[in-house]
């Protein structure tokens, strides 16, 4: 057996020491079993491969009879890993959370005052209807008609609106009333779709991967309309689910493209479920375009016949994620079904905050909010892109919407060129990002993680305040500086499993 100091011939004939050979092997691994960061993910409850064979079980997860872990969303897993590295909400000011899927909630320049006080009438101490308070439903319908449907014969009414306690709840309510159908989605997309498609098994998932390189530049990381039309015809799709603007890639379809998508749904009797939570986060280059937003509601012909379902709410656009007041808009017979599913799924949204939300939907106030939001977040986007460029991390397709940067790491040296390892290294620097793997909607978790089209990416959020963004970018800069100075031998291993000081024991642990 060779000794640690023995030498091996390299391809160039230059002798290599044993440690150098090990490092070369590390630089060329292609499977998740060879990576410590990937094994940490697989060890987390709910993330082991499922459904290979009927007898395959994960006994360490199935400690309660009949209970199967669904797998956590990316933000939850990353928060858990951050806590293992010392993060806590009481010490969050010491960390840079570039993983958060929420915008900063404080006042913005030229924006309206933030709602900091809520009056609670006695009646609001009772349950609200599972479809929501009628006055709020009317306010939502009025806002959509004012913004997107002026001059159209068919108008939304309160009967087209269902108030729900959060976007995920709205999505779950919709999924619970869909029958046994093929459901199309395009990756990368919002992480919760993975759990919804796994939990509501009547929806048979039909995936398509979007790519950074494509012959049609307009479809890069956007919802691919040509592919959607093809899938409907060839696979008999009954439901299409997508975010637009798109999380995590920051792209959006609008205008004629969005009109075409709605028309495809109408012409082929296919239900279109659109997550429009980032509909205000649009960044036009022409300042005269500030204040505009996008919604498929503008292209619906008949609000009670077109099978277009819109999910939105106060979480992102109004920057009130803690309120958990959102809505689903669609044909009124959909809303009656959602009322029934809400009675056993969640029981309805917070009654006092529904009442407090009504004045926030006043069209004049909304316009002031949009203008302030778009100018401020465009400034932050440009700042982040400029700093990434200086670090040599050029974003080939900059976000034109949302508050996310879909950052490709594949040009970094191994092992930093994949999202999970990059994420673990940043935790050591008190910075959180989201590995791209979580946006690969893969309900059975069976694919080798290295084969995922999202493997080489991370999602950076510019939702937090500017100070926090710079703190996180400083951490990325420190890592890249260390790589240039030390090489990669100190990366890819020695990750804490918990706060008690335990470390992972993957193949690269030292």
Describe the structure.
The two termini are 21 Å apart. This protein folds into two domains: 22-99 and 409-486, no CATH class; 122-369, Type I PLP-dependent aspartate aminotransferase-like (Major domain) (Aspartate Aminotransferase, domain 2, 3-Layer(aba) Sandwich), CATH 3.40.640. The protein has helices at residues 18-27, 36-43, 74-84, 134-148, 167-176, 192-199, 225-235, 255-267, 332-345, 351-357, 363-390, 419-427, 466-486, and strands spanning 7-9, 15-17, 96-97, 161-164, 181-187, 203-209, 239-243, 271-275, 308-313, 326-329, 404-408, 431-432, 434-435, 457-461. The strands form four sheets. The protein has a seven-stranded mixed sheet with strand order 4-10-9-8-7-5-6, sandwiched between helices. Mean pLDDT is 85; it is low at 1-27, 52-56, 214-218 and 504-510. 32% of the residues lie in helices and 12% in strands. With 510 residues, the protein is α/β, with parallel strands linked by helices. The protein has 13 helices and 14 strands. The longest helix is centred in the C-terminal third of the chain and has 28 residues, at 363-390. It is globular and about 65 Å long. InterPro entries: Aminotransferase_I/II_large (IPR004839), AspAT/PAT-like (IPR050596), PyrdxlP-dep_Trfase (IPR015424), PyrdxlP-dep_Trfase_major (IPR015421). One of its GO terms (biological process) is amino acid metabolic process. Its cofactor is pyridoxal 5'-phosphate.
Give the termini separation: 21 Å
- Helix segment tally: 13
Amount of beta strand: 5-15%
The radius of gyration over CA amounts to 24 Å
Low-pLDDT stretches are 1-27, 52-56, 214-218, 504-510
CATH superfamily of the largest domain: Type I PLP-dependent aspartate aminotransferase-like (Major domain)
How many strands, which pairing sense, and closed or not: the largest β-sheet? 7 strands, mixed
> Strand-and-helix sequence, N→C?
EEHHHEHEHEHEHEHEEEHHHEHEEEH
User: In the CATH classification, which architecture of the largest domain applies?
Assistant: 3-Layer(aba) Sandwich
Helix content: 25-40%
Mean pLDDT, to the nearest integer, reads: 85
| The number of domains | 2
The overall strand count is 14
Strand order of the largest sheet: 4-10-9-8-7-5-6
Protein name: PLP-dependent transferase
Family: Belongs to the class-I pyridoxal-phosphate-dependent aminotransferase family.
GO molecular function: pyridoxal phosphate binding; transaminase activity
Pfam families: Aminotran_1_2
């Amino acid at each position: 057996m060779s000794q640690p100091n023995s030498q091996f011939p390299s391809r160039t004939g230059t002798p290599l020491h044993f440690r150098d050979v090990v490092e070369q092997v590390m630089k060329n691994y292609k499977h998740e079993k060879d990576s410590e960061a990937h094994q940490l993910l697989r060890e987390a409850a709910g993330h082991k491969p499922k459904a290979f064979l009927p007898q395959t079980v994960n006994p360490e997860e199935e400690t309660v009879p009949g209970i199967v872990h669904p797998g956590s969303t990316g933000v939850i897993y990353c928060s858990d890993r951050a806590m293992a590295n010392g993060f806590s909400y009481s010490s969050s000011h010491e960390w840079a959370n570039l993983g958060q899927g929420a915008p900063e909630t404080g006042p913005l320049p030229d924006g309206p005052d933030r709602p900091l006080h809520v009056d609670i009438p006695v009646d609001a101490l009772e349950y609200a209807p599972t479809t929501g308070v009628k006055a709020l439903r009317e306010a939502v319908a009025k806002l959509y008609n004012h913004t997107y449907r002026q001059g159209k014969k068919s108008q939304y009414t309160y009967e087209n609106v269902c108030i729900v306690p959060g976007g995920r709840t709205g999505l779950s309510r919709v999924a619970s009333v869909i029958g046994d159908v093929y459901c199309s989605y395009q990756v990368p997309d919002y992480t919760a779709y993975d759990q919804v498609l796994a939990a509501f098994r009547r929806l048979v998932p039909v995936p398509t991967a979007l790519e950074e390189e494509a012959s049609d530049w307009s479809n890069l990381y956007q919802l691919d309309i040509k592919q959607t039309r093809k899938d409907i015809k060839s696979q008999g799709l009954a439901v299409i689910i997508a975010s637009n603007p798109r999380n995590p890639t920051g792209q959006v379809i609008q205008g004629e493209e969005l009109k075409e998508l709605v028309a495809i749904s109408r012409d082929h009797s296919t239900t279109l479920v659109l997550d429009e939570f980032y509909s205000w986060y649009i960044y036009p280059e022409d300042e005269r375009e500030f204040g505009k937003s996008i919604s498929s509601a503008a292209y619906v012909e008949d609000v009670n016949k077109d099978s277009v379902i819109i999910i939105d709410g106060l979480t992102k656009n109004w920057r009130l994620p803690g309120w958990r007041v959102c809505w689903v808009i669609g044909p009124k017979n959909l809303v009656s079904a959602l009322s029934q599913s809400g009675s056993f799924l969640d029981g309805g949204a917070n009654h006092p905050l529904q009442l407090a939300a009504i004045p926030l939907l006043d069209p004049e106030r909304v316009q002031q909010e949009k203008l302030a939001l778009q100018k401020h977040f465009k400034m932050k986007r440009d700042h982040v892109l400029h700093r990434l460029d200086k670090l040599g991390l050029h974003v080939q397709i900059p976000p034109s919407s949302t508050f996310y940067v879909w950052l490709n790491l594949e040009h970094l040296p191994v092992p930093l060129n994949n999202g999970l390892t990059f994420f673990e290294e940043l935790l050591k620097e008190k910075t959180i990002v989201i590995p791209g793997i979580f946006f690969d909607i893969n309900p059975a978790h069976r694919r080798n993680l290295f084969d995922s089209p999202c493997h080489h990416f991370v999602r950076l959020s510019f939702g937090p305040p500017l100070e926090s963004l710079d703190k996180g970018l400083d951490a990325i800069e420190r890592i890249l500086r260390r790589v240039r100075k030390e090489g990669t031998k100190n990366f890819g291993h020695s990750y804490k499993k918990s706060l008690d000081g335990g470390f992972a024991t993957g193949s690269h642990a030292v």
